[in-house]
Model the fold of this input.
Amino acid sequence: MEAIRSCGEFLGPHGGHRKAAGFTIEESKISLVRQKLIELAQQKLDEKNLKPTLMVDLELSLKDLSLDLYDQLAALTPFGEGNPQPVFATRDVQIADAWLVGNGSQHLKLNVKCQTRLPDGQVSNVKFDAIAFNMGGLYNQISPEKPIDIAYNLVADEWNGKRRLQLKLKDIKIKNE
Done:
């Protein structure tokens, strides 16, 4: 709003608040306002302001994930402004399989796993399907030999009458880079 107010001399009706703003402008004044906003951005914003951040609520192992946990979280809905959906992170996840999906292959679909030791001492793999929207560009950088750290939301997927847990990835950090 501060930036819009500073352009007030070039604008018609304008106003707003922290989360939304609007204004009316004559077409002939668009370039003036654009230049003024660029100048303000260069004065006020630095690289830190422009770097996206992702807040993680809790780090978990894949073995801790279950439909029961999902159902407990679903009791906290609706998620939205003021009640964001929880974001979880898991480190050193192995990629069991990966493929591209969507129009133009823009989405990355993964089958991720981690090993867990059973009470009898045997080792078992815990696996989940994961979808990473608009992260298809990472496909050529990932491999089963490179562990990844992931941040995600939990999603219940129902297909053919079976309900299963899926991870909706928010971010992927490829190890050994």
Notes: The CA atoms of residues 8 and 171 lie 39 Å apart. The beta strands are 11-17, 20-25, 58-59, 88-101, 107-117, 123-132, 148-159, 162-174. The chain has two domains: 2-50, 58-174.
